[in-house]
Amino acid sequence: MASTSAEEQEDSSSSLTNELLKARDALEKLSLDNVQITDGDDELAAFRQQWQRELESNPSPQREHSHIDTKLEPEETLSDEEKAKQLFLRGVELERSGKLYEAIQHYKRSMQIIPDVETRLYESSEQRPETPIIEDLKVEEERHVEDVESDEDMIEGEELVPRLQRILAKRGTLCQPEFITRGAHISWLPYEVIQLVLRWAVSADLDAVTLERISGTCRGLYLAAREADIWRSLCIKTWGIECGTPRTHGFTSWRQMYIDRPRIHLHGCYISKTTYLRHGENSYQDQSYRPWYLVDYYRYLRFFPDGVVLMWTTAEEPASCVGQLKFAAVKPSLGIMAGHYRLVGDKVVIVIKRVNSEKKPAQASNTRFRSRRRDTHEQQEHIFHLELELHNVRKRRNWQLTWRYYAVAYRRDQWTQFDLTPGKFPPFAFSRVRGYTAEAYAPLAAHM
Predict the structure, then answer these.
(1) CA-CA distance, 402 to 346, in Å (whole number)?
(2) C-alpha–C-alpha distance, residues 239 and 140, integer Å
(3) Whole-prediction pTM
(4) Are 91 and 121 in contact (CB under 8 A)?
(5) Are 10 and 61 in contact (CB under 8 A)?
(6) Rounded to whole angstroms, how far apart are CA atoms 329 and 339?
(7) DSSP strand pairing (396-409 vs 415-417)
(8) Residue 156 DSSP class
(9) Which residues contact residue 272 at a Cβ distance below 8 angstroms, ignoring those fewer than 6 apart?
(10) Are the beta carbons of 203 and 443 closer than 8 angstroms?
């Protein structure tokens, strides 16, 4: 089809040229035949000369058409991928020059041809620019020099936080990528968005351990993780809205108050292991044989930020039990009991209520046809009252819970208090469980 259209255009152009030549010959013949030149002949001669000048100045349609064909031939030979790449690169140039609307149009046209043109363009070895890598290396060297200079400009007696603030103010950025990267980096985010990311890292489970680990990555995140609003929210969620201020408790900052003040760890379980000997039955064959059994069982306490506590007494090992205490939903079939706790100074007061339903046989009632026995369900309510005290173990703060009071009420007015001997009631030791803080379901709420 293309060849036929080209032939038609050539025929039309040649015919037009022939007609123009015939008209010029006719005019020349008329000028030779006329002997007398009048005023009309002068006008005709002037028109003929002007027409000749226009024909000489303008190229013939045939030559113009051939010029257009030679110009369009390289574009027709380009593949779709090359066209898409040229459009995309043109869009990059327009975007750099500030013409965003035109750049978007070029991007759309290139992606209509090849959707992944950007990936093909920048991941191919032929299209990767070499100069930006050299520039990035120079920037990295400049940053290293700045870091060395900032380390040399240390002021004697200056604290770490003011020193880092001075360094980052001089640099003008919160953080910078250590290695050359082609993708997005956290340093591109505004400071408010980074604060929101940190609140998601702490989450509603008050995972301050993750916040401290983030602060150890770089200087900028170290300062962002020391923001007073985050630690103030942690303190209010731990001790309530009436927790006071750091000055009232003798602390210099909200972070120091959260770390040094007695509190419950929420990113794991407090586990207590009890071991005792139990005398078995004598053997019928050998009366002198008296067996003894070594019995082990565990008590688990799992605390939640909203004041809910789970207690579980079982003989199962911790590896198979801590996963059952991840959520506050109670599983009565396993014997897990749910209650509430309150932190008063260095003491933890726990109240747990358990309701047991037992079947009780009723008296037989004789009817006309047969005797029927109906079972009645009687609910027994047990209330557990525990008081535990927080202790530090070496350098680990709030790592141990010791017994101070334990009583059970089988009825409302009948309380049974236990003798808290160390053998029967050993202290609870904290054990971190990584699965409890592996996911964040809500950010740390901000308090005004």
Answers:
(1) 11
(2) 46
(3) 0.61
(4) no
(5) no
(6) 11
(7) antiparallel
(8) T
(9) 298, 299, 301, 425, 426, 427, 428, 429
(10) yes
Contact 280, 448 (CB under 8 A): no
Model pLDDT, residue 57: 65
Residues 257, 262, 263, 269, Cα dihedral to 10°? 140
User: In angstroms, rounded to a whole number, what is the distance separating the alpha carbons of residues 266 and 246?
Assistant: 22
Q: CA-to-CA distance for 252 and 226, rounded, in angstroms?
A: 13
Is 390:415 a contact under the CB 8 Å cutoff?
no
CA distance 384 to 339: 9
In the structure encoding, which two tokens stand for residue 237, read together? 């969620």
In this structure, are residues 310 and 336 in contact, taking their beta carbons and an 8 Å threshold? yes
The amino acid at 84 = A
CB 347 within 8 A of CB 330: no
Each residue of 63-102: pLDDT tens digit? 444 443 444 344 456 788 888 888 888 888 888 888 888 8
- Give me the pLDDT at residue 348, please: 94
Distance (Å, whole) CA 244 – CA 249: 8
In the three-class reduction of DSSP (H, G, I as helix; E, B as strand; rest coil), residue 277 is classed as strand
Positive/negative CA dihedral, 238, 243, 246, 251: negative
Structure tokens at 440: 């964040």
CB 257, CB 235: distance < 8 Å:
yes
The total of other beta-carbon atoms located within 10 Å of residue 374's CB is: 9
Residue type at position 159: E
